Amino acid sequence: MNAQMVYINPQYIANDIINKTQPQGPPFDFEKCLRYFKHLCIVQETLEGTGYLLDIGNDDAKIIVNRKSTIERQRFTAAHELGHWILKRKTQNREANLPNKTSQSSNNIERWCEKFAVSLLMPTHWIEMFLDGTKGVGDPTVLFFGPKHFLVSKEAFYLRLNDLYNVVVIERTAIGTRLHMQFYPKRFASEEAEHIIDAIGKRIFKEQLWLGAKGGFSCGPIQYHINKENVKIVLLLRGSADTASGVNSKLSRFSIMD
Ligand SMILES: [Zn+2]
């Protein structure tokens, strides 16, 4: 990371915006945010990509998002591009000192904006508030309703849980008689890991539930070794008809002791 960016903490900037515009909690409201940043607007257009920031002079800018993307994707893009706009303004007077736009520095900028977007849509204290009163990160209410509560994709939400609680979320989807496993983060996915998870799943949920249940069941965190790493895993069982945030059946949490 270049020297100019070290002093601008994306999480700090995101929290500051939240405290000034909407301290009451999720989901993050862009309208309130735009009322605060008067020089900025968000416009939906039909695009090839996800979106971009358009400078229109005099400090004014537009965030263009793809109207064909899901609302969760549009919100994430808007938060990311807002990061670009803020970073640009904060480093404006120091631009001459910034290194040329090498791929290294542009990677750093992209990482900064990703971190900013995550911190804006799912700040730590909002996640803690949401988990308070549940049985923790493995609770089905957290896993199934978290994405809807924060209006983010389930992938973004599970990766945030990984960020904050160091858990690997493994989602088992039943499509007919075929099981599909999705690992968040993806880097934990392997044939060997699926094998291990399959054995754990059958033991905890019992075979019938593990192989056939629709959404609503979860367990964990359980300490385990996956790909030679000591991690805490969280399992959730989702049916193919369940949406990202909805489930068909009653929510139940299984513990390793069951
Ligand atoms: Zn970017």
Ligands present:
zinc ion
- Major beta sheet summary: 5 strands, mixed
| Spatial strand order of the main sheet | 5-4-7-6-8
Amino-to-carboxy terminus distance: 47 Å
Low-confidence stretches: none
**Radius of gyration in whole Å, from Cα?**
20 Å
Outline: elongated
Mean pLDDT, all residues:
88
In words, what does this structure look like?
With 258 residues, the protein is of the alpha/beta class. The protein has 2 domains: 3-121, Arc Repressor Mutant, subunit A; 127-254, no CATH class. The chain has helices at 3-6, 10-21, 30-36, 71-91, 103-121, 124-131, 140-150, 154-165, 191-205, 207-212; strands spanning 40-45, 51-55, 61-66, 167-175, 178-184, 217-226, 229-239, 252-254. It starts with a helix and ends with a strand. The mean pLDDT is 88. Bound molecules: zinc ion (ZN). Residues 80, 84, 110, 113 line the site of zinc ion.
State the main characteristics.
Arc Repressor Mutant, subunit A, 45% helix, 5-stranded mixed β-sheet, binds zinc ion, alpha/beta, 2 domains, 10 helices, 258 residues
Topology:
Blueprint: H1 3-6, H2 10-21, H3 30-36, E1 40-45, E2 51-55, E3 61-66, H4 71-91, H5 103-121, H6 124-131, H7 140-150, H8 154-165, E4 167-175, E5 178-184, H9 191-205, H10 207-212, E6 217-226, E7 229-239, E8 252-254
Parallel strand pairs: 1-3, 4-7, 6-8
Antiparallel strand pairs: 2-3, 4-5, 6-7
Bound molecules: zinc ion (ZN).
Concise account of the structure shown:
The chain is of the alpha/beta class. It is 45% helix and 22% strand. Strands 5-4-7-6-8 form a 5-stranded mixed β-sheet, with helices on both faces.
